[in-house]
Design a protein that fits this description.
The protein has 2 domains: 120 residues, 2-Layer Sandwich (Nucleotidyltransferase, domain 5); 160 residues, 2-Layer Sandwich (Nucleotidyltransferase, domain 5). 51% of the residues are buried. The radius of gyration is 19 Å and the shape is globular. With 299 residues, the chain is an alpha/beta fold. The two termini are 16 Å apart. The strands form 3 sheets. The chain has a 5-stranded mixed β-sheet. It has a 5-stranded mixed β-sheet with strand order 10-9-8-11-12, sandwiched between helices. A two-stranded antiparallel ribbon has the order 5-6. Its EC number is 2.7.1.2. Belongs to the ROK (NagC/XylR) family. Keywords: Kinase, Transferase. InterPro entries: ATPase_NBD, ROK.
Length: 299
């Protein structure tokens, strides 16, 4: 049976899987990301993760953190979460290590493609995919394919300005961006500023569900800010579906209720019924999407 490899490169872990042509995973592996040791060490770790799968494969698809230029196969830019990652010839270096054709893209685009292939967006052609976690990222699926833009930056919706973030710093160095108020670190920081003692966002979510008014208010305000952003994007791009993933999307009913209410308050009547739902593939989405890229390149 012919298979391909799907790889997801994140700041803390690298996941790999053997995937059939109909989207079934037949083997999985994962290794920690040597994020502080430079690009060569990360690429070697990818090769090691693929080697642990133990099977043969015809091609590989890779979703990676950073701004990935799919045409050139290079990392255009990246944050400090992967030291020395910017400028890496991701496609060429991995093709040399793996011995097969390699296709690369941003990890959020890969995540969206996975959901489009066998997940919650299966059968859709126009989807707004959003991941809310350490940052806020997105992928706009137009006619079944991710929109990359002229500089491979399309989808960085966390850096759109919103009123609730006015004056708040953003990890990109700017201020007033959605990521500065709606991301996981921003929500936790807000809770701590209000005197809370939680050490991680899941604790804040649990407190909110148990009736902690401060925790609930922090989650609701952050979700409302994100929802306002998504409502505006729905008006602008007219998707069939809004698909929300990322760690913050696991914060429970308080967060989801506020998010959906804020989207509903922003959208135009013609798009009022666009569903806002969570993904269906969990941590498998990005490796499946990366594998789908490989299958598409094979034809």
């Amino acid at each position: 049976m012919t298979e391909v490899v799907g790889v997801d490169i994140g700041g803390t872990g690298i996941a790999a899987a053997l995937v059939t042509g109909d989207g079934r995973i037949t083997a999985r592996s994962s290794v920690p990301t040597p994020a502080t040791e430079g690009a060569g060490a990360v690429l070697d770790a990818v090769a090691a993760a693929v080697g642990e799968l133990g099977g043969s494969f015809a091609a590989a698809g890779v979703g990676s953190a950073g701004v990935i230029d799919r045409a050139s196969g290079r990392v255009r830019s990246a944050t400090d979460s992967l030291a020395g990652w910017a400028g890496t010839d991701l496609r060429g270096e991995l093709a040399a290590r793996l011995g097969v054709p390699v296709t690369v893209d941003n990890d959020v685009h890969a995540h969206a493609l996975g959901e489009l292939w066998t997940g919650a967006a299966a059968g859709k052609r126009h989807v707004l995919f959003v991941t809310v976690g350490t940052g806020i990222g997105g992928s706009l699926i137009i006619d079944g394919r991710p929109h990359h833009g002229a500089h491979a930056v399309a989808g960085h919706i966390g850096h759109l300005p919103i009123p609730a973030a006015a004056g708040k710093p953003c990890p990109c160095g700017g201020s007033g961006h959605a990521e500065g108020v709606g991301s996981g670190p921003a929500l936790l920081a807000e809770y701590l500023e209000r005197g809370g003692s939680a050490t991680a966002l899941p604790e804040v979510a649990a407190l909110a569900e148990s009736g902690d008014a401060v925790a609930a208010d922090v989650l609701a305000l952050g979700a409302a800010a994100t929802g306002q952003l998504l409502g505006g994007l729905v008006n602008a791009v007219d998707p069939e579906l809004v698909l929300v993933g990322g760690g913050v999307s696991s914060c429970g009913p308080v967060w989801w209720s506020a998010l959906r209410a804020a989207v509903a308050a922003e959208v135009l009547p013609a798009v009022r019924d666009v569903p806002v739902v969570t993904g269906g593939l969990g941590s498998d989405a990005a490796v499946l999407g990366a594998a789908r890229m490989a299958w598409d390149e094979l034809g």
